[in-house]
Amino acid sequence: MLNIELRRPRSEDIDELFEFFQIMVKDTYIKEGIGDKLEDLEIEILVKKKYLLEDLNTKGEKRYFLIAICQDKIIGTIAYGPANEIIMSCLPQSESVVHELGTVFVHPENQYQGIGNLLLKSMYQEMSNHGIKQFWLDSGYKRAQYIWQKKFGEPEIFLKDYWEKDAHHMIWKVNVPVE
After folding, report:
1. Residue 159 — φ and ψ, nearest 5°?
2. Half-sphere exposure of 35 (CA within 13 A, CB side)
3. Which CATH superfamily is domain 5-175 in?
4. What is the pLDDT of residues 43-85, one digit of tens each?
5. Rounded (10°) angle between helices 142-152 and 14-32
6. Domain extents in the chain
7. Quick check: 55 and 79 in contact, CB under 8 A?
8. Its pTM surpasses 0.90
């Protein structure tokens, strides 16, 4: 069993996290067969960097990250914050405060070892501590959709052919488990 430390990011983690996002987004794009969409890939990396800086600049008030570290190396991330534009565009206007869970990454060398579940369980506790009772999670990546469907069931919202033919986008509404 790996010795995993979960903690909040610090300013000294920025460079390593930026590099981690680069690795993870590129790996995701390659595994999804969309590695040729370089502009989209760069935008995705920039969004992750922006989210991290929002966390650090607001001390977790606007966006809240947890990182997983093993042997002094960042091997996973998870965050929550305001829901993205795709989620918000699908919800009624009456839903004003909507939380999104995202930036869930586990380094390719460490996947399928329970690290994602550990991050998720820890984030449930953090959300509960901050009075958050539910969140939304979305994905346009087929591999991630498979994992989220196993964990959360069928999505609340299914956007058929959202990205292109047979490239759907799925959105789940999830209640934070009470332990």
Report:
1. -105, 95
2. 9
3. Gcn5-related N-acetyltransferase (GNAT) (3.40.630.30)
4. 999 999 999 999 999 999 999 999 999 999 999 999 999 999 9
5. 100
6. 5-175
7. yes
8. yes
